[in-house]
Amino acid sequence: MKAVIAWFADNSVAANMLMALIVAIGVVSLGRVNIEVLPELDPRLVSISVPYPGASPAEVEESICTRIEEAVWDVDGIEEINSTASENAGTVLVEVRTDADPRIVLDDIKVRVDAIDTFPEEAEQPIVTEIVVRKKVIEVAIAADADEWSLRRLAEEVRDELLALEGLSQVELINARPYELTVELSEDRLRRYGLTFDEVAAALRRSSLNLPGGAVRAADGEILLRSSAQAYDGIDFEELVVRTGTDGSRVLLRDVADVVDGFRETDQASRFDGRPSIQLRVFRVGDQSALAVADTVKAYVERKSASLSDVFTLTTWGDESKILESRLETLMRNGLQGLVLVFVILALFLRFRLAFWVALGIPVCFVGTLAVMPSLDTSVNMISLFAFILVMGIVVDDAIVVAESVHTHQSKQKEGRAGARRGALEIAQPVLFAVSTTILAFLPMAFMDGAMSRLWFMIPAVVIPTLVFSLVESLLILPAHLSHTPRLVEWLSTVPPFSWWTRFQARFSQGLETFALKRYAPILRTALRWRFATLAVAVGLMATTFGVISNGMLNFNFMPNIEGDNVAAQIKLPPGTPIERTTEVAQIVEDAAAQLQEELRGTDPKVGDGDLVQHYFTALGSQPYRANSQSNDGLGGKSIGGAHLAEVTLQLVPSETRETSATVLEQRWRELVAPNLPPDAEVEFSAALTGADKDVQVRLRAPSTETLIAASQDLQDTLASYSGVYGIRDSYEEGKREVDLDLGPAGEQLGLRQADVARQVRQAFYGEEVQRMQRGRDDVRVMLRFPAAERRELSELERMRVRTADGAEVPLGDVATASLSRGYAAIDRSNRQRSLVVEADIDTQVQNKEALRRELEETILPGLEARHAGLVTGFSGTEKERSDSLAQLARYYVIALLGIFALMAIPFRSYVQPLLVMSAIPFGIVGAIGGHLITGHDLSMLSILGIIALSGVVVNDSLVLVDFVNRELRAGVGLIDAVMAAGVARFRAVILTSVTTFAGLTPLMLERSVQAQFMVPMAVSLAFGVMFATAITLLLVPCLFALFVRPAVDEEAVARDAGVVPV
Q1: Which helix (H) or strand (E) holds 798?
Q2: Bridge partner list, 783
Q3: Looking at domain 136-179+267-318, does it have CATH number 3.30.70.1320?
Q4: CATH architecture of the domain formed by 562-691
Q5: Closest CA to 631 of 687, 692, 696
Q6: Are 294 and 320 in contact (CB under 8 A)?
Q7: 479: preceding bond cis by omega (within 30 degrees)
Q8: How far is Cα 483 from Cα 479, in angstroms, rounded to an integer?
């Protein structure tokens, strides 16, 4: 190693070629680095979905979910199983363990599910897929006051034309009802013609089909035989023969039924800016650029809009590329500002020549990291750019230490090459171990599991390669550059304004040295004399800081609370509410949105005369914004839909181009809606991008619903007894009213069975699927059922006739009894038991969130399990992820600390000295917590990650300081004199490395845009932790060294330096 360093220091051509090679490979690799807003997440989930049309949640649970769970629960590699039984479908989500391959687990699950032969006949084929997060780029809203057919045809035309464009591969219709052809048979016509549903269905299946008939092998060639009688539209179906008389007369389908060629009966629809709409969602695939995809779509929409009539409008919205551009632009601006600050500080502390070469290493290291990013499957995104900013001030630390050492030797020897060689060799070992400890501190983030692990991985994936390249640059390239001064640099230092700066820097440098000798040295001498008191003050300060946390003066949120560029209103009415009623309430909220848009026009100085609210989108029968933003394991870890639900979402001008807060808009919108809202409607507003989850989320599991409901009420009552806890509720929700039919004795006497009655009622009210036909690219169902008018009242059920085996017709009311009850809106299951989630919010001004959480974990939940037999409790949603993530970090952090200890014990050849160096870590944490208090930020997961990274950074200065003390001791200098000499000699380097780290992060900490707030807590932890640890390094570490390394040896030296003769 020493020979390599010496050879590069003596061979500037080799050093420059190495630097050029790093830069060249990095530049070439730029084209292979993807650019995206956030890295692609891997949810590690397998979904098993089984449609069961017309079934209630209870039927779906019994017939679908339970059977799937029992079939797959013991598949190797499964972490957890969660199921949702809802109306018409059952979904089972299987979470795959991090040590298992999701594809192997998927294959095993498919085999198990395919082997189930007890699903109901009416259930459709299971769909088993691995959930993959797709990369949405932009949406196109097609709106018109036109019929649904016209809107759908235009949407399909636009979709096909978009897919024909180069660079677009995936475009989907959203909020478009599937095609369906309905044959409506009324009870009166059935009786008039003496027909049954079964007879009509059989006739249609016999008449509408394509059937291959083999081939005729004639002498002149083979001739294929086929029957092509498939009906494809309403007119074709109307001409199908239902019955033929003995006299040749025919009864056609149009005689006995009305054929409606339309759309499936669903409760979902959408409006865009107050008009009926269909959305097209455009995704990017593979290495497609989000910016290029968005530009292609926007150019197409502009061309297409010019060719359409005024009835239709095409609008792009939800443009992720705008978010990408603004986020990346903000972070790059902060990065450049930080780079300038770092260079200015380097030029202030070091001579211009040293500052120039040290600063040059930053872009070289960054370009080198870009070269390896494709190999690490790392993209340029918000997290990786933040990592570059994070490491900017750290990456120069080793270069500063090397430059200082080289400068010192060159000043003594008056010879450039030899001084560079000796300076680099002298400091190589501590620099190597200092960088290694920093790398170790960042490694825990690379091994985390969970849904967010991909985000955290981006940080070490950038920081670690950058640090490796910084080691190469500082030990192999920098010494060669410092061995001589380029003529241009020499000339620049003599030309104004550089000559002025050179003189100013010389005075500043002299002033810094004077400060170290005249101010710092006496303070250090006093601290060494009163080292026990110094240690006591430091420990007291640390205890006070950790007391601040335990007393709840600093809140902890897993993710920081950040508002977004959308404001959503979730509308909820009692289950069973018809979609028409929900639409009326949604219209009230929508009208308020239009009023808000008009009211705020021209009020924001940044926006000018434009609209602050760009668009508003209404979803009827679903809540897509909530479904996308909520936790996978919270109150709605299932699809959020139903005729009683709706949602209105406002798209605002991006945060960086407006001054008005989204929270202010949310409050005003709430005020406009409140006076007109009916009492049975609930509307929940949200402007949060992250951190909107509930403070308390507890999942309860039990064998029976009765136990769950009782335990839930018990827990809610307990939470309500705590002041400051509000918004307490659970996920249990009563569903629609249900009519349960039971065959009576009269029906049994007529030869009817329960299955006969149930099947005929299903045919009439849900319908019977006669066939499915392929019409173009669409799979169209053909359904046979009562007309819509005969399915609106319960009296129609009583009027319905049931057909017996001998053809007799009897009223349903004569052969069956009906009981009315209330069912479930949905049934959640977790690990093969029914479950629900209890959630609540906490007012942190009144209640200590962490104290309540500990009490829940240690007292309340165990007591709840003891009171309710079979109950299993645990945290859910964000709270569960928080617990899992912190537990993982704690394990990996301990391993990292042990690694740091081992790395320092080897060169120091001591078990005590590494502990002295690592004493800076807890005080760095003190600084990080103090930084959060000063800046007003809550602690978050990002803060914790910053503190872990801080642990590797703060030991670097202490490590170099202790190394200097050891060299002085080996030279025969007394302990106290060695400690004093080390403090003064390393004062400039310690201050400079800390200030550059702080300066590199300052622009980001001062950034007020929404997109930066996600990153700020980590920057605060690192910046303030490093600054506070500087004082610890310069004062406490020397005192600890004097206390624990031969403490009695130089007592007389301490007294002599203080002017006191010991007695």
Answers
A1: helix 794-799
A2: 182, 769
A3: yes
A4: 2-Layer Sandwich (3.30)
A5: 692
A6: yes
A7: no
A8: 6
Contact 514, 446 (CB under 8 A): no
Residue 1034 DSSP class: I
Nearest to 632 by CA among 38, 39, 42: 42
pLDDT, residue 493, reads 63
Residue type, 697: Q
Residue type, 563: E
Instruction: Decide which of 352 and 166 is more confident.
Output: 166
What's the rounded Cα separation, in Å, for the pair 216 and 210?
18
Q: Between β-strands 778-785 and 179-184, what pairing exists: parallel, antiparallel or unpaired? A: parallel
DSSP E strand stretches across 801-951: 801-803, 809-811, 816-824, 826-830, 833-842, 872-875, 939-940
Q: Which residues of 1032-1050 are buried (b: 16+ CB within 10 A; e: fewer)?
A: bbbbbbbbbbbeebeeeeb
Main-chain dihedrals φ then ψ at residue 841, nearest 5 degrees: -105, 155
Residue type, 527: A
Q: How confident is the model at residue 630 (pLDDT cuts 50, 70, 90)?
A: low
What is the secondary structure of 508-537 as a DSSP string? HHHHHHHHIIIIIHHHHHHHHHTHHHHHHH
pLDDT-derived band at 1049, boundaries 50, 70, 90:
very low
pLDDT at 160: 92
Q: Mean pLDDT across the stretch 965-992?
A: 84
Distance CA 890, CA 880 (A): 15
Provide the residue ranges of all domains of the chain, joining segments of one domain with +: 1-32+325-480, 45-131, 136-179+267-318, 514-553+907-1047, 562-691
Q: What is the pLDDT of residues 746-760, one digit of tens each?
A: 888 888 888 888 888
Q: In whole angstroms, what separates CA 414 from the centre of its chain? A: 57
- Nearest to residue 929, comparing CAs of 1053, 808, 1020? 1020
Give the other-Cβ count within 10 Å of 303's Cβ: 11
Q: Do domains 514-553+907-1047 and 562-691 have the same CATH topology?
A: no
For domain 45-131, which CATH number applies: 3.30.428.10, 3.30.70.1430, 1.20.910.10, 3.40.190.10?
Answer: 3.30.70.1430
- Measured distance CA(920)–CA(519) in Å, rounded: 22
Q: Measured between alpha carbons, how far is 1062 from 1054 in angstroms, rounded to an integer?
A: 9
Backbone angles phi, psi at 98, to 5 degrees: -70, -20
Write the CA distances from 327 to 386, 642, 935, integer angstroms: 11, 36, 22
Q: Which helix (H) or strand (E) holds 1048?
A: none
- Tokens of residue 938, six digits: 């809550």
User: For residue 623, what are the CA distances in angstroms to 209, 582, 949?
Assistant: 40, 13, 39
Q: Which of 164, 54, 172 is nearest to 120 (CA)?
A: 54
Contact of 86 with 639, CB cutoff 8 Å? yes
Q: In 3D, which of 48, 54, 63, 99 has the Cα closest to residue 78?
A: 99
Closest Cα to residue 473, out of 26, 1003, 148, 140? 26
**921's torsion region: left (phi>0), alpha (psi -120 to 50) or beta?**
alpha
Q: State the Cα–Cα distance between residues 645 and 470, nearest whole angstrom.
A: 56
Determine how many CB atoms are found less than 10 A away from the CB of residue 713: 13
- Take residue 116 and report the two structure tokens written for it: 């189930």
Query: For 20-117, where are the E strands, in sequence order?
Result: 45-51, 78-86, 89-96
Do 342 and 397 contact (CB within 8 A), yes or no? Answer: no
**Share above pLDDT 90 across residues of the chain, in percent, rounded to a whole number:** 17
* The CA-based dihedral angle spanning residues 207, 212, 214, 219, taken in that order and rounded to the nearest 10 degrees: 100
- Amino acid at site 317: W
- Tokens, residue 1041: 């060294």
- Is the domain 514-553+907-1047 a CATH 2.60.40.420 member? no
* Annotation: CATH topology of 1-32+325-480: Multidrug efflux transporter AcrB transmembrane fold (1.20.1640)
Beta carbons of 312 and 146 less than 8 angstroms apart: yes
Question: Cα–chain-centroid distance for residue 345?
Answer: 36
